[in-house]
Amino acid sequence: MAALGGVMASNGPAMAADATVPVIVKDTTSNYWQIVLAGARKAGKDLGVKVPELGAQSESDINGQISILENAVADKPAAIVISPTQFAALGKPIDEAAKSVKIIGIDSGADSKAFTSFLTTDNVQGGRVAADALAEGVKAKTGKAEGNVALINSLPGVGSLDQRVQGFKEELKKYPGLKLTQDKVADGQATTGLNIMTDLITADPTLVGVFANNLIMGQGAGQAVAENKLGDKMTLVAFDSDPKLVGFLQDGTIYALIVQDPFRMGYDGVKTALAASKGEKVPVTVDTGVSAITKANMTGVRSQELLNPKLD
């Protein structure tokens, strides 16, 4: 990027005025990633950094994200913030990119050791929190934490999703009365989530609980629970939130939302990238936190900050 008239000093805080830090998300259309970008945008304003908002139109467009990363590197930015769409496929592209620019990872991992810093939810812990919430909900609705439960994983091979599954299964062992009888993997589409949930309900009328491990699966599964009027009997726990899922939480269709702090992830991602580009020491990993929000606690101040972040 060209300097502004060549009169500005090239060291110290003034460097930020010329800095560009692209943020590459998995899907620019979804509510979750819009919140990440809002946080990044706010950091750009606060720090005086240009923050191009980049990403594919779908989390399944892996090749699209690789091309976006390569183009971003070619523009010679100060640093790049990226949430890899797929663990294995993004490993080598990130290795290659890191040869010429600092790479800050957010949200999901990749098969690479080239990240300068990584900011993410502890997704294994998120899965554990989901299992605890599911057990709590089943007990609240049936009187005991017993019965058949199911899992819907949105996409195969995605680091964050696989970690949620791992944590969920580990924690579920603490509730011997709950039996994981169905373990489904979808294709990242809400319609598929709806169809899987409908099939689960039809196949097992005794099913007492389901964990949908991302926002899109939560939308589809929630729609199925609502259409079948099972909110009083079925305990549905979903990961992440948007207005539709918050509505499901409010009316009892969903028992709990396991929410991250995507605004902080975007904001601190840009802040960390700028610091790293200046040669400052930055933490190798940052846990940005996870919370369980139910109808009972959804009106609390912190819950509202997480459910309704400012997107402007």
Please write out the topology:
Layout: H1 15-18, E1 23-25, H2 31-47, E2 53-55, H3 62-74, E3 79-82, H4 91-97, E4 102-106, E5 117-120, H5 123-142, E6 147-153, H6 159-172, E7 178-185, H7 190-203, E8 207-212, H8 215-227, E9 235-239, H9 243-251, E10 256-259, H10 262-277, E11 285-287, E12 291-294, H11 301-307
Parallel strand pairs: 1-2, 1-3, 3-4, 4-5, 5-11, 6-7, 6-8, 8-9, 9-10
Antiparallel strand pairs: 10-12
Helix pairs in contact: 2-10, 5-6, 7-8
Tally of extended strands?
12
Oligomer: single chain
Low-confidence stretches: 1-15
Can you tell me the overall shape?
A: elongated
Biggest sheet strand order reads 2-1-3-4-5-11
Helix coverage percent of residues?
Answer: 40-55%
The overall average pLDDT, rounded, is 92
Structural class determined from secondary elements: alpha/beta
Q: Main β-sheet: number of strands, strand sense, barrel status?
A: 6 strands, parallel
Number of helices: 11
Distance between the termini: 26 Å
Order of helices and strands: HEHEHEHEEHEHEHEHEHEHEEH
Compute the CA-based radius of gyration.
21 Å
Please indicate the percent range of residues in DSSP E strands (runs of 2 or more).
Answer: 15-25%
Short description:
With about 300 residues, this protein is α/β, with parallel strands linked by helices. Helix content is about 45%, strand content about 20%.
